[in-house]
Structure formats: structure tokens, C-alpha cells
Amino acid sequence: MNPHLKSFGLTTLMFLVIRGVTFFTLPSLVTRIYGTNSWILIPAYVLVTLGGMALLIKGMEKHHQQSIFEVVHLHFPPFIAKLFSCLLILNFLAVGLTIINEYISMFQFTVDSSVRISRVAIFLIIAVLIVASHGLYTMTKTSIILFLISFWIIFIEILLFNDFSLTRLTPFFFRGGQFNWKGALAITYSFLGFEMLMVMSPFISKTTKAFRAVTYSYLMLCVYFTMYIILSQGLVSILQIPKIRFITLRLYGASRFPTVEYITDFLFFFFIFSAIMSSALYIWAANEGMLKLVRRKHSRTNYVLIGAVFIIIMALNISSRTWQAVSFWVGFVETCIVVICILLLLVLPYKQKVSHSSDLSANSSTSKDPNEEMAKEVP
Amino acid sequence: MYARRMMTFLIIIIIPIMLTSCLAKQIINQNGFIQTITVDKTNTADIYRMGIMFPDPEKGSTQNALSLSIEAENLPKALDHFQLKTRYSLVIGQLRNIIISRELAESVGVNKIIQTLLYNPKFPLTSRIMIHNGKASDYLKLKEDLTDYHLSNLLRKMQNQYKTGTNTLFNFVRNELEPGVDPILLQTHIEEGSVGIEGALLFKKDKPISMIDEQELQYLLMLRNKKMNVNLNISKAFLPTNQPFAVNNATSKKEIRILQVKPIPKIEIYFSIIGPLVSPINDITDHSRELTSDMIERSVEHGLNQFMRKVQASGTDPIGIGHIVRNRMSFEEWDEDTWREMFKKADIRCIVQYTLENEI
Q: Residues in domain Spore germination GerAC-like C-terminal (chain B) (predicted)?
């Protein structure tokens, strides 16, 4: 029998998932929207996110660690439950795909234009599906290793403080930015990731303090994001930052070290772990939802289908502008889903699982012990 | 089970490695690693003479450099041409020097040149950008690999000596876009087949407007950098001796204090210098024992203040005083052009405090 998720594994997994790939653009976005010294807003964003997570965990506790799919199937008529589950599944898959696309776009930006997005995507999609198909426990264990081999990069940034100027940071707060709601929402998406708890909850050990474990991830990321934004605003002028698409990569590119002069590729390589884990977790969550919808539960078939659909979508000639728009709307839907799910979990009363009810039990795996499920997934 | 997990882990590691490194098989000694790019003016507008230099990979020596040049609109077009002229695959990621002719920099501005070069994401932002008073392509005719390693080593040596560096592409672009500070670039020259630094050019936005000679370069760097290493010559006019002295390998720290912003900015720039005083043999130098820190301070202050007047007259602010003044104004009040006028009239005084570390 596989053990449930423990605190450290949950912390590392959520760290990699939330860090994702958006943090490459985050300093530019925050500066463009909020202007000077906008780094101060990062802790505020984290606090709001933690508030949302606290409510979500309260709701999860109320429902005795049932996943959102189980809660929905238990409370709503099958048609509505299936429709809502489909929306969740599609959104999770879309998030997984946009993460892959975003990483590869950056990869092309870093390496050169000879990189074919559709071809490189195949490799990344395969890697993501392999990780996702091994289930949550293996993902958590892998995340510990990946966390340990990629966390040190933050210390390289400290070397850049040589060139850092407080004068450049200016004494002004929130000046020179061009606030718009679209941008403010896009920043919010960078902090999403905790909503995965509503699918992961049955797999988390009862002794694990999920809130505390994920809060540690957010606190680390708060330091991480804040430091990158302070660095960006203290190294490059506020007029220049919004013009730079991937400011974090630019800072790496401008770093000069005694032995290596161009280290962007080397450092960028380590962020693939975040991209893989982040995308894999969303795809795993989508698969969990799909397993609740169908009678015959073939996890691997689902992953193969997802992979095929992803490869076809990546092979289509979709412009980068369309991807950006899709990415924004996927984030928007995800934010709405988070809010709705939190409300549902808080409002709906707890309902015990009915072990042998005809339709429900056939269509979902709620009656099973998650351990059994995990034992199947992770031999 | 352990083996499967290990296999999964290996797959996760191998796929990223495949993604980030071996995209195309490239044999290292079939690559021409471009070390230097030169850009010159032509008779046609928006067409530049672009030259590249790279070490001959097959001869295996840094003294065998190959060079190519062509008139082109931008670097990608020039590289397309160069690819047909050499059997080596040209690689831009190791570029060290960009040399632009002063004539071109003055006529179209450095920004436009940078725009014609920076198409490739691999283009290193840490490459050094320099201005040459003459034809930049003259560097390609040099038989030695002067532009490749010699110039690069010369700059690195300067950087180590002063413990500061300001000549990278990244620094130029940053200063150019930043409010309240103007960029500077080093000017190079060729003398008897050898390359050297002539001084620095002061820029207004991206166009060079005046030259700082090698004697004053150190003052410019002292004023621009918060902390650096300096070697200062103390004129005998300030000493009771018949010979000049020197302050060697001293550490200079700078602090700018804004006393008043309006109507005329009043600024004091404090330097705290600590280092040994180096003299000729004391036995044959008159009154060497009567030398005081105060004399050294007056000498350095005189040099710095004189240099400051020259910079103010040029109408550019390479020191970044505007940067600090801007922080004393309201956010909306700042205007780059108004600051240039204010800077010209500003009452700026350099004050030096010297600590005699030792007498050598």
C-alpha cells in the first residue's frame, strides 16, 4: 500500500507547480501594471491567495477530504455534475497545455528560431504524461528531487545585487504604471495552484497539515517572486522593464560570472522541472475527473488520448497572440472555478458516500479507498 | 518498483537534457565562433558595412583569425552572406566585441546600430561595445587576433584594475533608456598594429557628443561608480616637493548629497579615498616628510572639480546625478530636457577625504 502525501512532499510539489513558468514574465507584468516599487504587492497577493486556500481547506475538511469531483457527484443530479466536471476537466487540460506552450515559446526565445515548437512539444508532452501517469505519490517524490536540484538558482540572483541600485528603485510607490484589470488578473493567475488541493485532498494523509505545507510553498515563492521583482526594478529602469518580455531571462543573460559568461540556457534548463510538474499535476487532476465520468476506468488510455489531442493542437498553426489570449481566458475561467468551488465546498452540507448506489458508484471511484487507487497507479 | 521509479526519474532528466542541448549535431571545430563585429558607415542610408572576425578552428591557434565583411541592412542578412563564404558554421553566442565607427555613431546613433545587430536571442548582452575613431573594419585587417583576445583582455584588465566595468551592451542600453543618466562608451584606436583605449565618449541619448581623454577617464569612472580602485597622480603644484607623487591602488567610495534642487541644484559629491602614497626615493626628494593628507585632497579635488565643469559644459549627465535629483522631485515633475539645462547650471562641488594608509 502506498502511503499518503506527507508535508515536505506536498510543499515541494506545490512549490514547483505554483512557480510554473509565469514567473519569467511576472516582474515585467507587475511593473507594467503597478509601476514603481510594485514588488510590495507580491506579499499582498500571497496573503489573498492564502486566504482563499484557508477557505478551500475549511471546505475540504467539512467534506471529510472528498475531492471536488466526489462532492459534485454526491450533491447534484448526474447531468449537472457531469457538466460541471467536464468544465473542470477541460480547464485543467487547457492549463496543462498552455503551460507546455508557454515553456516551449520561451525555449524558442532562449535557444533560437530554428526550434520547432510543435516538435519540441512532443517531447515535453511525453515527459509530462509519463510523470502524470505515475500518479500523485510518484509525482510528489519526484518533486522533492527536482526541488532540491533546482532551488539553488535563487542564490545566483544574489550575485546580481552587485549592480543593484536603491536609487533606481526610487522612493515612489505605484507610479508610472498603466493599471488595467486584465493585467491585474493575469498577475493573479501566477499565484494559482492551491486549487489542486481540491482534487488531491483524498490522497493527503490525515496527519498532514495541508494548509501549513502549502503555506510554506507560498512563503518561499513570495520571497522568490519578491526578490526577482526587487532585483528587476533595482537593476533596470522602470521605463525599460515593461518592454522586456522575459525579464528574468534577460537578467540571467546580462549576468557575468568569472568562469561562464552566457548561462541563460544552463539556468533555463532547470525550470523545465517546474513546467513538467505543473503541467503534469493539472493533467493528473483532469484524469481524476475523467475517471469519475466513465464506467470503464482506463487511466493509461486517457493519458494517451490527452497526449494525442495535445500533439494535434500543438501541430496546428496557432499564432502566439491566440495562445496569449487563450492563456488569459483559461486563467480567468480557472479563477472563477476556484471561487465557485470554494463556495460550493463551504455551502454544501457533508454527504456520505453511498457505496452501492447504482449510477453514482458505477460512474465514480469515490467508494474506493484512495490508497487502493494509488496502489494501482504506482506499482 | 524501485527500478521503475529510477527509470521514470532518468526519463525526466534525459528529456530536458535532450531539449536543452543537442538539438543539432555540431562538431566544435567546424564552428566559427564570431569574436568581433565591426560596423561602418556606407554611402547608402540604412546600409552598413558589417564585418566579422573569428578564429580559424582548423589551425588551432588564436593567432589565425578569419574575417569577412559585406554591406548589409542588418546582421542576419550579413550572416546569410557570410554563411556562403565559409565552410564553418558561424556562431554568435561567443561574441566579445562590437566596434562601431564614430562617424556612424554620430550620424545615426548607437541605438539604430544595436537594432540592426540584435536579432538572435543568443546574441550576448555581455559583449563589449566600443567606438572607433576611423574605420571600424580596420580591425579586420590586423594580422594578429587583436580584436578577439587582445582587446577583450585589455578591457578585462581595466575591469580588474578599477574593479568596475561599464562597457557592455546591456549597460549601454540600460543607461540610454534610464532617466537621469547618460551612457558612456570607450573609444579604441589602432597604433602601430596594436589596439588600445583612447578615452571615453560621453553620449546624449545614443549619440556621442564629446570625448574624455585617458587622463580624465579615471575621474569619470570615479564619479560614475559607487566604489572602485584608483591610481591618482598628485601634481607637484599642490605639494611642497619638486616631484609629483602618486596614490596607488587606493579604494575610492562616492556619495552624492543633494543640498538643493531648485532653482539651481546644489550638489556635493563626497569621495572617501584610502590608499598608500607612493613617492620616489625619499632621500632625494625635498620636503617629502612635510606632505599631508590635506595636500593630496586639494590636488584630487582640483582635478575632479575641473573635470566636473567640463562634463557640465557638455550638457550630458554620465554620472547619474539626475537619477538622484529625480528622486527628490515629485514623480510628474521630472523632465529629461529640463534636467540637462539644470545640470549645466548646477553648483556641483567634489569634496575629497583622503586617508593615508601607508607611505611607500
A: 199-357
Query: Do residue B12 and residue A146 have CB atoms under 8 angstroms apart?
Result: yes
pLDDT confidence of residue A262: 57
Does residue A373 lie within any of the structural domains? no
* pLDDT per residue rounded down to tens, chain B (360 residues): 666 777 776 766 666 665 555 555 566 677 888 888 999 999 998 999 999 988 887 776 566 778 889 999 999 999 999 989 888 888 888 888 899 999 999 999 999 999 999 887 778 888 889 999 889 988 887 766 555 567 777 777 777 777 666 688 888 998 988 888 999 999 988 887 778 888 899 999 889 999 988 888 889 988 988 888 888 888 878 877 777 788 888 899 999 999 998 888 999 999 999 988 887 666 556 666 677 888 888 989 999 999 999 999 988 999 999 989 999 988 888 888 899 999 999 999 999 999 887 777
Which domain does A212 fall in, by range?
A: 8-368
Per CB-CB distance under 8 Å, the chain A contacts of B20 are: 107, 111, 265, 268-269, 272
Q: In 3-state terms, what secondary structure has residue B14? A: helix
pLDDT at B21: 52
| Contact with chain A for residue B2, Cβ under 8 A | no
Q: Please indicate, yes or no, if residue A3 is contained in any of the structural domains.
A: no
Q: Are A341 and A68 in contact (CB under 8 A)?
A: yes
**Is A127 within 8 Å of B178 when comparing Cβ atoms?**
no
Shortest distance, CA B312 to any CA of chain A (angstroms): 21
Say if B25 is an interface residue toward chain A (CB within 8 Å): no
Looking at the domain assignment, is residue A376 inside a domain? Answer: no
For residue A214, report the phi and psi dihedrals to the nearest 5 degrees: -75, -30
The C-alpha cell at A233 is 526594478
Among B277, B242, B274, B284, CA closest to B352: B274
pLDDT at residue B25 in the model: 56
Closest to A323 in 3D by CA, of A27, A117, A86, A92: A117
Q: How many domains does chain A have?
A: 1
Query: Given this model, what pLDDT does residue B12 score?
Result: 67
Give the residue on B whose Cα is nearest the Cα of A272: B16
Chain A residues closer than 8 Å to B11 by CB: 127, 130
B19, A272: Cβ pair inside 8 Å? yes
Q: B165, B264, B168: which is closest to B224 by C-alpha?
A: B165
On whether residue A204 sits in a domain, the answer given is yes
- The angle at the Cα of B230, spanning B227 to B231, to the nearest 5 degrees, equals 170
Please provide residue B349's backbone torsions phi and psi, each rounded to the nearest 5 degrees: -130, 130
Query: Which chain A residues are Cβ-neighbours of B319 within 8 angstroms?
Result: none
Taking the CA of residue A73 and the nearest CA in chain B, the distance in Å comes to 34
Residue A222 to residue A154: CA distance in whole angstroms: 12
Q: Nearest CA to B147 among B84, B180, B114, B196?
A: B196
CATH number of the domain within which A237 lies: 1.20.1740.10
Chain A residues within 8 A of B5 when measuring between CB atoms: 138, 141
Quote the cell numbers at residue B331: 514623480
Chain B: residue whose CA lies nearest to A235? B174
List domains and CATH numbers for chain B. 12-200 (no CATH), 226-359 (3.30.300.210)
Q: Which of A200-209, A321-330, B103-112, B272-281 shows the lowest per-residue confidence on average (mean pLDDT)?
A: B272-281
